[in-house]
Amino acid sequence: MIDYLKGHIVHYETEYVVIDVQNIGYRVFCPNPYAFAKSEEVVTAYIHHHVREDAILLFGFPTREEQKLFRKLIEVSGIGPRVALGILAGGTPDSVVAAIYQENITFLTKLPGIGKKTAQRIILDLKDKLDGIANTPLFVQVDSEQHDLFNPVSTGWHEAKEGLKALGYTDAELDKVWQNLKDGIVPDEPVDSVMKKALRMLYAG
């Protein structure tokens, strides 16, 4: 089984990256493809090697914590790899683990693809199995501005912002762009579309 890949990012899509490892391109599905900086630098993706009857898939993460949490999530009945990716796209390992420990169903149901019954199942199955995966904060504040990322409009921006930061833009530059950009973003707009709009504003100064 593949545990990690180390190589150069040669291609991006909204759901995956292609990593060149010694002239072999591996398609790796990940929560936020833009978390891997597209540069000349070698990147490391921690891999979950998923084998089905009809496919062999690679899911990749920039940290061990995300890799471990992903593996725990797909052990829960009813949660497949795609739903687990959505959870990790919508919340950090720290915030997801904290919500599970605190039985915070409100937080969990804000994550993509998670209803009340699934949230309850996650808590029941994983509450005692997440030691060492994340630094758990004392509480998760669902209604604060930091969780505006669960809004379907700002979810795309949250992912796009990480990709733009990887390209060298600062939080101050990106927050300024967002104020001018947010009214022109539609719910569930693809991340690459949001990035293109933001880049046009950044280039225009």
UniProtKB/TrEMBL annotation:
Pfam families: HHH_5, RuvA_C, RuvA_N. The RuvA-RuvB-RuvC complex processes Holliday junction (HJ) DNA during genetic recombination and DNA repair, while the RuvA-RuvB complex plays an important role in the rescue of blocked DNA replication forks via replication fork reversal (RFR). RuvA specifically binds to HJ cruciform DNA, conferring on it an open structure. The RuvB hexamer acts as an ATP-dependent pump, pulling dsDNA into and through the RuvAB complex. HJ branch migration allows RuvC to scan DNA until it finds its consensus sequence, where it cleaves and resolves the cruciform DNA. GO terms for cellular component: cytoplasm; Holliday junction helicase complex; Holliday junction resolvase complex. This is Holliday junction branch migration complex subunit RuvA. It is found in: Cytoplasm. It comes from the Bacteria. The keyword tRNA-binding does not apply. Homotetramer. Forms an RuvA(8)-RuvB(12)-Holliday junction (HJ) complex. HJ DNA is sandwiched between 2 RuvA tetramers; dsDNA enters through RuvA and exits via RuvB. An RuvB hexamer assembles on each DNA strand where it exits the tetramer. Each RuvB hexamer is contacted by two RuvA subunits (via domain III) on 2 adjacent RuvB subunits; this complex drives branch migration. In the full resolvosome a probable DNA-RuvA(4)-RuvB(12)-RuvC(2) complex forms which resolves the HJ. Has three domains with a flexible linker between the domains II and III and assumes an 'L' shape. Domain III is highly mobile and contacts RuvB. HAMAP family: DNA_HJ_migration_RuvA. Residues 71-90, 106-125 form the Helix-hairpin-helix DNA-binding motif class domain. GO terms for molecular function: ATP binding; four-way junction DNA binding; four-way junction helicase activity; hydrolase activity. Keywords: Cytoplasm, DNA damage, DNA recombination, DNA repair, DNA-binding, Hydrolase. InterPro entries: DNA_helicase_Holl-junc_RuvA_I, Hlx-hairpin-Hlx_DNA-bd_motif, NA-bd_OB-fold, RuvA, RuvA_2-like, RuvA_C, RuvA_C_sf. Residues 155-205 are annotated as: Domain III. Belongs to the RuvA family. One of its GO terms (biological process) is DNA repair.
